[in-house]
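user: can you give me the structure for this one chain? tokens are fine.
assistant: on it. calling the predictor now.
[tool input]
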Amino acid sequence: MLIFDLDGTLIDSNGVWLEVDKTFLARRNAPYTQEYYEGVAHSILQNCAVFTKEYLRLEESCEEIIAEWMELAEGAYHNVPLKPHVRAYLDRCREAGHRMAVFTACVPEHCQAAMAQHQLAPYFEQVIYAQELGVDKKSPEIFRRVAEMLGVKPRECVLFDDSLAACKGAKAAGMTVVGIRDSFFRGTEADMRELCDRYIESFGDLL
């Protein structure tokens, strides 16, 4: 079973959230720092909102924070491009008979918009949302749960992801891990290369 992340792996969307974060912080005269990035990167919105509320000591509720983020990101996923060579690789995997699924921390409506824009749904048996499971893509247990939902064992899965934390969790769960380079997370590249079973610049490396 091939399991693909969405943001930063199949679609080039990490820049959307960078701009959302910077705009949100600028409205509150707060700088975009490494500490803030580490607190929100690759997390589900609920956990990002809890962190942001505490980090900035905001009076707004988590629901209000999420609503502002959604407003800032509105429409962006209708125009986000695929990352290089994604469709060619998915076509090859489908022709080879590989089972494929998506496991993403992306907001469901954003994911659905991007997948509809690029007609990706036919490639995948299932799309699993970390947000609906209520957990971040970090712990080995969540990757074991995803494998169970897909009817396979972790050792039968290959995860494709640009997040170091997700790759660590999947690796600890017993999955094979392919790290995807994304320019927004250059700081983790050395660790990704050391951890992952394979690290690629783009899906063109696998063609």
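assistant: here you go. The beta strands are 2-4, 100-104, 126-129, 158-161, 176-180, 198-200. The CA atoms of residues 63 and 106 lie 17 Å apart.
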